[in-house]
Amino acid sequence: MEDTIKEIKSRVDIVNLINEYVPLTKGGKNYKGLCPFHKENTPSFMVSPELQIFKCFGCDKGGDSIRFVQEIEGLEFRQALEFLAGKAGVALKTSAFTRSPDEMKAKKILELNSLAAEYFQYILKNHKFGKKALAYLKDRDIKDAAIDIYKIGYAPNSWDGLIRFLLKRGYDISLIAASGLVVPKDNNKGFYDRFRGRLIIPLRNERGEVVGFSGRSLGASEPKYLNSPETLVFKKERFLYNLDLARSEIKKKKEAILVEGYFDAITPFQEGFKNVVASLGTSLTSGQLSLLKRFTDTLIIFYDTDTAGIEASKRALNLAQSAGMDVKVGILSDAFKDPDEAVRKDKMYFGKALESAASVYDFYFEYAKKRHNVKDALEKKKAADFLLPIISEITHTVHKAHYIKELADLLDVSEETIVQSLKKYGTNFGAGRSYSLEKKVSSPKISSQEYILALILSSPKELAQKTLYKLSSDDFTQEIANAVFVKLKDYLLSKERFLLRNFCLKLSPHENELVEKLHLMELPVLEFLEEDEAYLEKEIKKIFDIINKETLRRKMREVSYLLKQAEKRSDKRLVSELQEEFLRLSKKVTK
């Protein structure tokens, strides 16, 4: 199995792999980009093509290509290996892993769901039963290409059509039941199809696997939408519709459009708004946000324009903000009830609404206007009670002044009245938490001993050897740095060709961790290496002098201690010798 893992890793270049998720730029021997695992403005995420590893110096996540896939895709080791094996074109033996019963069952459910999706689409496109559903899709301006992309289908109004189809294909009824596609009869003697006489929308996870289904009623049947229950493969709390198709565009545009329903995602997507996902209903969850944050930190919420939709936008906004996301809210005119209708009736208008998405505070003002009739005194008070605590949280003086004026105009009162009202929320006009710009994240501070090791590791072999000759083990007081120095000196001064990955094989786990960190660190001096090797040599000399003086000062402290001991014993000869030694060291330090 170890050989298979090595083969997979050798065939998948980590730079190309990570570049699919994070735009990387070359910086010296390594690549860098914004970390996909935490929010940052300054790149601290480094990738080494030589060692085929990554490390973020901001959140400390790191590892090889398998670890990256585990983190970015939320997969277990085996799943990540299978994912990479697919990319590498390497066949994994089924005996390579011992799957748990649930894992085996989940894999079978995914296969069964995929087959069920084919069944539903066949009925839609090739059977007379599907004509009504096709007409419905045409009325909604859903194109044939979108029907194929989304694998939209139709469930005939039959009690057991799907059951019979799946049983003929060899699937056990217990597995079909576990998929949620069937419902047990009241007498518990058998099952019937969950979806009957409904348009079928397959639900695919971020990897494109069919994990469930949603059936839309085409008549008066209730509910309008009937969804699969939660199963081993379908967890509503961590599911976003259309993420499999939108994820690349979300990464490219660095923002996601969040809508409520299926057609709110399908219609914009087919019309060119490719970074749209749906939360399926009005209750955005922290699990969905966690999933989305793997691809972006910026969210534009475009929920329905009815009261429920506005309330949902407010809840989603608060949740997204608490998750550390940058949030805007798309506001549609009352002429459109949702993004689906807006795109179908006026695609250009929707594009403009997207570009002019409201800030958090503008949305809250729009929310207050729709919820409260400020011509009425009681409603005016309710609007004030809602908006005042929100304004009190604004920290920027000019920003706060703007919304104080907005609220004064909305309520038709003086700005002074608003300023006085804000005092009961614990803030005065202009007061608030002071600005603090995000601290720039870069490589961590390291000692001069570690720094010179980093420079040696990055140097041409001759320069590295010359530097190593000048240094001794006494110059490295840090235990791990000392061990790395000794092994590096032995390796570099040998006749063996220096390959960093081979050198790492000679190290203990702690030593290897240090070398990987030093190798991945962004060293400004290396930017000039290709143009001027002498620049690197000067930097090495400068650090060598620092280390040399550190060693001399350490020896001076040792001599000083011995001198005090000799004076206590009145050993005049030794005192004289130590004084001379101290003076000699002192002169070297001050050179």
UniProtKB/TrEMBL annotation:
It comes from the Bacteria. Keywords: DNA replication, DNA-binding, DNA-directed RNA polymerase, Magnesium, Metal-binding, Nucleotidyltransferase, Primosome, Transcription, Transferase, Zinc, Zinc-finger. Gene3D superfamilies: 3.40.1360.10, DNA primase, catalytic core, N-terminal domain, DNAb Helicase, Chain A, Zinc finger, CHC2-type domain. It holds the Pfam family Toprim_2. Residues 254-335 form the Toprim domain. Binds 1 zinc ion per monomer. SUPFAM superfamilies: DNA primase core (SSF56731), Zinc beta-ribbon (SSF57783). RNA polymerase that catalyzes the synthesis of short RNA molecules used as primers for DNA polymerase during DNA replication. NCBIfam families: dnaG. Contains an N-terminal zinc-binding domain, a central core domain that contains the primase activity, and a C-terminal DnaB-binding domain. Belongs to the DnaG primase family. This is DNA primase. It comes from candidate division WWE3 bacterium CG23_combo_of_CG06-09_8_20_14_all_40_14. The gene is dnaG.
